[in-house]
Write a structure and sequence with these properties.
By secondary structure, this protein is α/β, with parallel strands linked by helices. The protein is 29% helix and 19% strand.
């Protein structure tokens, strides 16, 4: 367990015994909508690229091209790094708010899918998704730096004092309500994520490699509970994760829009 994130569920450790993953070009071919009534989607940075937001990992990711930014995102640097946090996360929130949800966000909302997201941009809620778990928090929310004695959280735009948001309850500065390196994930969010993947009949991973915890145990948990698991990946960089039944090689904007247009159960 790392930073409060559990390892893969029992029974999923021996990856060699899992059937080979099928590579396909259409979600429609392997997961017709009428067959699935309880859809859960795990989303990562890739789903928001079409809104003008970049990814974090990989050769073109923010952490690769600007390692100094990644170094500033560590909890042990608080409060000295508050300006940098708002510059990065606040900037991303403003880009997302200006661009609005992508077709893939809207497609998931239209199907009524539950969403577990690693993103902090609020685009799933903007698209109309009602059931959203934000594993890494939200850049649209602020929280007081004094967690021990105050604990305030609220909307960032409602408490802006000058260039930076401040706590609405005390005189301390506020920070973005996102999970920084070295911080624990919210146990309530993790518990809700586990509940969703354990009760769905179709699990989709969109715009994420799914290799970093907690994403790394969501697909195995869903599969162990009987769900059909599909990874939608525009640029596969290696063998498919054998926790999935199929991998759709294509742009999620097109793949999900086509799939959402089909009749529902």
């Amino acid at each position: 367990m790392v930073c409060g994130v559990p390892d893969r569920p029992a029974g999923c450790e021996d990856r060699d015994v899992v059937d080979a993953v099928k590579d396909v070009s259409s979600l429609v071919d392997v997961a017709p909508r009428e067959r699935f009534a309880r859809v859960c989607a795990l989303t990562g940075a890739g789903i928001s690229v079409a809104a003008g937001l970049g990814t974090f990992r990989g050769p073109d990711g923010l952490w690769t091209i600007a390692p100094e930014v990644e170094r500033a995102m560590h909890a042990h640097l608080l409060p000295a790094n508050v300006d940098a946090l708002w510059s990065v996360w606040g900037g991303m929130w403003e880009i997302a708010a200006g661009a609005g949800p992508t077709p893939a966000h809207r497609a998931l909302a239209a199907t009524g899918a539950s969403v577990i997201t690693q993103n902090i941009d609020g685009l799933h809620q903007a698209a109309g998704s009602a059931d959203v778990v934000e594993l890494h928090g939200s850049a649209g929310r602020a929280r007081c730096l004094d967690d021990d004695f105050c604990g305030w959280t609220g909307q960032a735009h409602e408490v802006r004092q000058g260039d930076l948001p401040g706590c609405a309850r005390c005189t301390e500065p506020a920070r973005p309500a996102v999970v920084l390196f070295g911080e624990m994930l919210d146990p309530e969010a993790l518990g809700e994520a586990r509940r969703l993947v354990s009760s769905c009949d179709l699990f989709l991973a969109v715009g994420t490699s799914g290799r970093v915890a907690p994403a790394s145990w969501l697909a195995p948990t869903a599969r162990a509970a009987g769900a059909y698991c599909v990874n939608i990946d525009l640029h596969p960089d290696g063998p498919a994760d054998p926790a999935f039944h199929a991998r759709v090689v294509g742009d999620a904007q097109d793949v999900l829009t086509e799939w959402a247009s089909l009749p529902s159960p």
